[in-house]
Amino acid sequence: GGGAYGAAKAGGSFDLVRFVQQPQVLARIVSAIFALIVFSCLVGDGYTSRPEDPRLFCVFNGNEDACRYGIGIGVLAFLACIFFFMVDVYFPQISNTTDRKYLVLADLGFSGLWTFLWFIGFCFLTNQWSWTRPQDVYIVADSARAAITFTFFSIFSWGLLLTFAY
User: Fold this and answer.
1) Secondary element (H or E) of residue 158
2) What are the average pLDDT values for consecutive 10-residue runs of the chain, which has 166 residues?
3) Count of domains in the chain?
């Protein structure tokens, strides 16, 4: 047996190649990249202005909440990926089964919540994009579509992380 939450395997040396080849580490890296793409598309090209009005507005139907939501969940997902990546690095060194259990449950809960939030984000951004007038966003349309696309991909990458945590 491996013990509770892999506690019998605690200790030992760190092997970078073996670590990076773990499926949950690869899924976490992919999820971080997707989150980075989503929030960078929205921060970089998520706001535009009209020729007659110099004020910036969100490209998703002028709904500021759509841009804020995408940026918010993207930034938090990226930071969470970094945090859980560090947990993955130190996890084999943790011998206390209670600590290991709480880390696994935190990963499980956060991954489940973020899978749901990415789904909500995809629905919200897609809905707002469908109501956006093409003449308002012809320059930044590709960034908006990329944010929607990678929000959709993030549903599955976080779902995969949820599966690995389970």
Assistant:
1) helix 141-165
2) 52 76 92 96 88 85 93 97 92 85 94 97 96 82 94 96 92
3) 1
Concatenated DSSP letters of 22-77: SHHHHHHHHHHHHHHHHHHHHHHHSEEEETTEEEEEETTTT-HHHHHHHHHHHHHH
Contact by Cβ (8 Å): 161, 106: no
Residue 45 lies in a domain: yes
Q: Apex CA 63: angle with CA 61 and CA 66, to 5°?
A: 105
- What is the residue type of 31? S
Name the residue range of residue 136's domain: 22-164
Cα 48 to Cα 38, 72, 77, 120, distances in angstroms: 17, 19, 25, 24
